[in-house]
Amino acid sequence: MVEATIAIHPHWTVDLLRQMPQVAGERYELIQGELHVTTQPHTRHQIACTRLATELNNWSQPTGVGIAIGAPGLVYADNEAVAPDVVWVSHQRLAELLGDDGKLHGSPELIVEVLSPGKANEVRDRELKLELYARHGVREYWIADWRTSSISVYRWVEADFALVETLQSGETLTSPLLPGFACAVERLFALA
C-alpha cells in the first residue's frame, strides 16, 4: 500500500474532503487536519481484516454484547476522520455513536489496524493513530502485521495506552474487554 500526505491545504476538514473528487480504490483519512491517502491494500491485509472481524463476530453473536465492523467511518472532529480496518463496539455504545450520516462519532471500545508495507504506513498506524485513539479514549488497540504474523496489543492503563504484549504464531489472543474471546494468532493470518 502506498501512502502520500497531501499538503495542498494546510488544514484539511471533512467538508473540504467531501468537495474533492474521490478516486476509486483510495481511502482518505484526516488526522489533525493532515490528509492521508492510501491505495487498495494487499490481499493478505484484507484476509487478516476479514479473519479478525469474523473471529470477533463469532464471539459476539452468542454473547449479544456487540459487533465487529470492517472499515467504518470514524469521525472525531471536522479535521479528524479515519477508517480503521476493524472495530468492535458494544451495542450500547453503537447506539450512542452512530450518526445520521452512517458514521461513528466517537470511539468504539476496540480498534484494529492491519499494517501495510512502507514507512509512512507504519508511522501512521504505530504513531499517529495510536496517539489519536489514545486521545479519544479507545480502550484497546490492536496492530496486526500479516508479514510477521504478529499482533501488538495496546490497552488503556493509568490514563494512557501501554503496549501490554506482542503475540506471535503459537500464541493466543485474548482480551479482558471481551471475556471468553480467544483466538490462535496463526488463524488470523493463514491463507487457507
UniProtKB/TrEMBL annotation:
Designated name of the protein: Uma2 family endonuclease
What is the top-level taxon of the source organism? Bacteria
Which Pfam family would be a valid example here? Answer: Uma2
What positions does the domain Putative restriction endonuclease occupy? Answer: 17-186
Q: Which GO terms describe its molecular function?
A: endonuclease activity
Q: Which keywords does this Swiss-Prot/TrEMBL entry list?
A: Endonuclease, Hydrolase, Nuclease
| Record has Hydrolase as a keyword | yes
Coiled-coil stretches: none
Which organism is the protein's source? Candidatus Chloroploca mongolica
Signal peptide positions on this chain? none
